[in-house]
Each structure stands twice: as structure tokens, then as C-alpha cells.
Amino acid sequence: MIPPRLHARLDAASAAALLLLPSALQWPARLVRPLALAGLGVAAYSLATRYREDADGAIDLGQHRMLDAAQGAACLAAGLAEKASGPRAFLTGYGTFSLAAAFLTQPEGPRGVTLPPDAVAEDLGPDLVRLRCGIVNVAFIGPVNAGDRGWFLVDAGIGGSGAAIRAAAESRFGTARPKAILLTHGHFDHVGALEELAREWDAPILAHRHERPFLDGTRSYPPPAPEVGGGSMAELSPLFPRSPLNVTDRLQDLPGNGEIPGLPGWRWIHTPGHSPGHVSFWHEASGSLIAGDAISTTQQESLSSAALQTPHLQGPPAYFTIDWEASGRSVRRLAALRPQVMIPGHGHAVAGPVFLAALDRLAQDFAARGVPRHSRYAPRHVHLPDDG
């Protein structure tokens, strides 16, 4: 990360270059004027920036970083469209520099716990399968060739996942339809194909009662927290959908006793923090846990980690988590179960003693390893019910 003093000096140099260099090189007015205005803009938001947390200023480094990235992208685009070699080199170089500065001033995300490759699990047992749908997982519960209404789908992936989920279901269960679609929660990347699959299979949707407002069209999720850092996924989070889905005609509340109708041996566990009604699914006899977004096995804030599925144990995706105290309690509750195998919402399925040791470390030191240094939700702004 660029030190604050150096960052301020680089901003001053950037403003001066935009204001003075094009005029000194006698570039045409079509370039000199807009670049001078851009330089004044850089100078203005730099003077208004709190480069240190204890300093005065109207905007923080997170907002400053976004402005750097925006004007850097604009300069890079203008440079790629410019025909004159000198201005093109300046604009593309300056745009690249500004984007790099935005990246290098990004705060670190949650520390988490590094997972070795041997913690990754492929064989999850005869009745449990993980399917990766882009950046997120769905799960199938039920034996191969289970009869009609003899299996369950957990979550419904990102938008466009319907065909992949349908194909995987047909490969395992033939034409049999699921008994129900179980939801860990209703964020956009877990309900992308929900409406179409529920309609096609004529299946009910079961979710926690505290998640209902986000699934009956009543309420949008709270704004994300891109300031958590950790990578491009966090930075892009303001662009992610958070409007409510409306599946009222098929939506049912999970029973209050923790049971799942038609699925003996499995229970749901209220694991709030990432969302008010987030739940995980637990099969005690086999030690199988479907954690949803309560626990991740990759650094979901980072686009590269999310794409490459780099093994790394941490709490929920930080940019959409609205109560960190509740998240810590949920992680500790799941760690106390001593799961033998776990499917997270994001990242590889994991198993074995190395995974359990990492989970214990995360649970015991969640304040230091699970919580980002910066988040509008780190102080407990939102009260989430912790009852079942």
C-alpha cells in the first residue's frame, strides 16, 4: 500500500502534469482544456482527502481511490482512441498509472487462514454433490437416481446458471424433480436461476423467515461496503444487484424446529451476519455441512481468487456482510459442530484435520482474521435477530 505522504505527493504531481504539460507541449485546445479541468479536479479532491484516518477532510481514501480509478479509466479510454502519438502515450500512460495507484492504495481484506491443497475435498459422500456455477456453489442432496421428489437443491447460482444446474440434475437424477429448493440466503449470486427452476420443477422454495422480505419483493438488501478492500470484487460490489426477488407464490418458511420437511437427518442452522436470515445445512451422522456464505474457502473479495478458487479459509464475503458480530458467532457455532466435510458458498469443498485446524483458528481469532479493517458495518449498525 502506498504510504499517505507519498500518495499526497503523487496526487500533486498528477494534478500539475494534467494542468501544465499539455499546454507546454502545445497540444491542441481539444486536449488542453479537458486535461486542465481534469487536473483541477484531481487537485480539488486531493485537497479534500483524509490521507490519514486522524486527518481532516471531506472524503476518505476509499472514495479518493474510486475517483482515481474513474479518471484513470477515462484517460486510458481517451488515449486508446487518440491518433496523435504523443498525446496517446501520455493519456494511456497516465490512465494506467492512475489505475495502478487505485489498486495499490486498496486496503487489505480479511486475513483469514491459508488452506493447503490437501484440504480440498472431491469425494463428499454418496448423497452430496457440489456444483460450481461461476463464482458460487450450489449443492445437490440425495442419492444417485433418487426418485421423483427424492432430492433437494441448495441455492440456485448466479443468473444464467439454470442450464448448468438442470444438466447436472438430469445427469444425477434423470427426470426426477426435487422435493424443494433450499436457500441459504437470497443474495443475487444464490438466486440467479431460482425462479425459472422452481417454475419448471413445480418446486417449493424454503428459506428462513428473516430472509422473506428479500424474496417477496418487499425490501432490498443494504448497500455493499466496497471499502472492505481485498480486491476487485469488493471494488465492483456497488454494481451488484441487491433488489428483492419476488417468489412469493412458491416461498415457504423453514420450520421453526430446525427440521427440513422430507429430508430426515438434515437440519438447518440459523447463521446470520452475512444476511439476516442466512442459514447453513447440517447432517450430523456424516458430519456434512453446507455452510453457504457463513464461511468461504477462497478470498471472495479478490477477482483472481474468486476465479481461480485459491484455497483460503475466511468468513463471509466481506463486501455484502452487514453484521460482523453475528458473523463471528455464526462461524464459532459451525466450528463447534466439528464438520468432517464442508461445502461453502464460495470456493472448494474442504475436509480433513487440516481444514478443522484452520476452522478452529478462524473461529477463535475471528476479530483479527475474519473482520476487515474497514467496513461501514464493522461497528454494529444493524441488529440481526439471533433466534432460530
TrEMBL record:
Q: What is this protein called?
A: MBL fold metallo-hydrolase
The UniProt entry's coiled-coil ranges are: none
- Source organism per entry reads Paracoccus aerius
Q: Where is the Metallo-beta-lactamase domain?
A: 135-346
List the InterPro entries. Answer: Metallo-B-lactamas, NDM-1-like, RibonucZ/Hydroxyglut_hydro
